[in-house]
């Protein structure tokens, strides 16, 4: 009986302690809520809590190697907001890494990847990412004040939710407003000293193009003991090569639509003629084996050595190498010149920022703190956040003159002379580019200096908006998406074969086989999907402008 009585007293004591602990926890929780400022549509939510927190941020590019906390900007942002970032990037194939993470059902806090990637739809359909609009409504309505309505409308899904926010994005309205300032990244480049030594030949015609590559190889067989590479391109992937697709088609001013209907650029006569020109160049020994196998790191190394004579390439992708060449010899840099053109000699229609942007950023359902995550994203896309990531801290990396922010002389000097060192020391000018707003920064940009000014200026006036044509290809697991994937992969196999064909007759045979397989895979389904998406895109663009 005594044992039972003692046990009863013990259990009562435990129960009382548990209730007391629960009360204390509730009081503490209430205290925390009281201490936290209520969210407001007029006040950034991140200011309510600047305690230390670290988010894992996955960036789906194997070349991405930036670190957080090593430069002045990231240190400043952490001191200001309390947020630190642990950057993660894939060691190998990006698609494989994304698919593995999606299959596991567990994702890092933030994910940044190309808007066109199949994984975006998979994450949304699999409910692996959170709706930004719902997070904002619950935790940070300030998001709606700083977010661009046109971008929200563009990325709104059929369920009414928005899961992704883009960087480097421009609505048609933005594009029209800034078109005279907007350059394109798409360029045809030649090594200045070699090009001028050859008499600055016209490379806009098939004959002139092949003739110039041949002359360059004969006159400059080696560069510092290594063979000259007459022509450089973006890397070949399992779905093709952007230099020989959109870049070449844009230089040839091939329309995206005719008579209000989408146009199949792949079968365009001008495009086929120029692909045959590249085939001829290979037959003449002017396409080095390197270009079929090299990935970006190998290409960057060869650009820095000045081993390419010409390149159909994105100018921003070789900025650090261009700077290194300029430091060694200003005449060894790459300059933009008129490249492949159609028979009529029309001006290129080069792509500028589109409404889709370059990459999109999403917040995982596994995010460790929903409140802080959406608040940080709102800060990033706000003018305050954009300015912080562009300029850094006042008095440290920039000062103001007549109310206008300007980099300090020593900071600007390093930016123009050594971008790599600038990134490591200062980290400004969008080293951390995940949510950069390239329109907002236009008034802030310091005047472009050589060796970049000529490349940028050459593209101005040739830049157009392709917003209505973004995201036309189906993604996911639908029948049309599977067909589209098979067609893309078939093109990835076909393109090298076209260039390596021994004759135009063999080229035609390879192209005909591809077109047949394209039909067999279900190209009609893909075309029907593209037509519907084209109509939806125009509706979204109209809604976004309201």
Report on the biggest sheet.
5 strands, mixed
Query: End-to-end distance, in Å?
Result: 81 Å
Choose one word for the global shape. globular
Q: Can you list the strand order of the major beta sheet?
A: 2-1-3-14-4
* CATH classification, class level of the largest domain: Alpha Beta
> How does the helix and strand content classify structurally?
alpha/beta
Q: Please give the number of β-strands.
A: 17
Note poorly predicted spans: 1-35
CATH 2nd-level architecture of the largest domain: 3-Layer(aba) Sandwich
Instruction: Tell me the CATH superfamily of the largest domain.
Output: Periplasmic binding protein-like II
Taken as a percent bin, the fraction of beta residues is: 5-15%
Helix content class: 40-55%
Number of domains: 3
On the 0-100 scale, what is the average pLDDT?
91
Instruction: Fill in the CATH topology of the largest domain.
Output: D-Maltodextrin-Binding Protein, domain 2
Radius of gyration: 27 Å
Instruction: Please give the count of helices.
Output: 23
Keywords: Signal
InterPro entries: Bact_solute-bd_prot1
Protein name: ABC transporter substrate-binding protein
Signal peptide: 1-21
């Amino acid at each position: 009986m005594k044992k039972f009585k003692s046990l009863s007293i013990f259990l009562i004591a435990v129960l009382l302690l548990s209730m007391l602990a629960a009360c204390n926890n509730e009081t503490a929780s209430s205290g925390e809520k009281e201490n936290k400022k209520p969210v407001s549509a007029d006040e950034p939510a991140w200011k309510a809590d600047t305690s230390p927190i670290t988010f894992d941020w996955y960036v789906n590019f194997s070349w991405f190697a930036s670190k957080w906390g090593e430069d002045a900007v990231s240190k400043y942002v952490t001191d200001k907001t309390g947020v630190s970032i642990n950057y993660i990037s894939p060691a190998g194939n990006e698609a494989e890494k994304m698919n593995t993470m999606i299959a596991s059902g567990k994702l890092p806090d933030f994910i940044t990847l190309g808007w066109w990637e199949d994984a975006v739809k998979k994450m949304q359909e699999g409910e692996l990412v959170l709706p930004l609009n719902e997070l904002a409504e619950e935790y940070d309505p300030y998001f709606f004040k700083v977010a661009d309505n046109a971008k929200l409308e563009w990325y709104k899904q059929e369920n009414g939710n928005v899961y992704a926010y883009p960087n480097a994005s421009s609505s048609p309205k933005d594009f029209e407003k800034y078109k005279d300032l907007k350059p394109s990244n798409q360029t045809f480049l030649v090594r200045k000293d070699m090009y001028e030594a050859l008499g600055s030949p016209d490379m806009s015609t098939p004959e002139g193009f092949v003739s110039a590559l041949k002359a360059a190889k004969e006159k400059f067989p080696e560069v510092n003991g290594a063979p000259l590479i007459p022509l450089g391109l973006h890397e070949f992937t399992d779905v093709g090569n952007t230099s020989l697709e959109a870049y070449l088609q844009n230089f040839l001013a091939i329309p995206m639509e005719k008579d209000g209907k989408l146009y199949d650029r792949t079968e365009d006569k001008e495009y086929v003629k120029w692909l045959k020109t590249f085939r001829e160049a290979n037959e003449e020994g002017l396409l080095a084996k390197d270009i079929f196998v090299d990935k970006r790191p190998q290409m960057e190394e060869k650009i820095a050595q000045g081993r390419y004579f010409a390149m159909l390439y994105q100018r921003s992708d070789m900025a650090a190498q261009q700077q290194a060449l300029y430091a060694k010899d200003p005449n060894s840099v790459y300059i933009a010149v008129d490249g492949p053109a159609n028979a009529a000699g029309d001006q290129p229609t080069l792509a500028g920022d589109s409404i889709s942007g370059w990459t999109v950023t999403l917040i995982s359902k596994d995010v460790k703190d929903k409140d802080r995550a959406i608040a940080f994203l709102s800060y990033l896309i706000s003018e305050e956040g954009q300015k912080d990531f562009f300029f850094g801290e006042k008095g440290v990396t920039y000062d103001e003159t007549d109310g206008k922010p300007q980099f300090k002389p020593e900071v600007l000097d390093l930016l123009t002379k050594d971008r790599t060192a600038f990134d490591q020391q200062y980290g400004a000018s969008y080293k951390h580019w995940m949510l950069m707003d390239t329109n907002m920064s236009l008034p802030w940009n310091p005047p472009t200096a050589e060796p970049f000014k000529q490349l940028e200026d050459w593209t101005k006036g040739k830049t157009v908006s392709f917003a209505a044509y973004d995201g036309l290809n189906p993604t996911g697991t639908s029948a049309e998406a599977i067909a589209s994937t098979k067609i893309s992969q078939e093109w990835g196999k076909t393109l090298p074969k076209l260039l390596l064909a021994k004759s135009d007759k063999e080229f035609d045979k390879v192209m005909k086989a591809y077109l047949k397989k394209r039909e067999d895979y279900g190209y009609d389904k893909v075309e029907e999907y593209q037509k519907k998406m084209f109509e939806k895109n125009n509706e979204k663009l109209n809604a976004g402008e309201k």
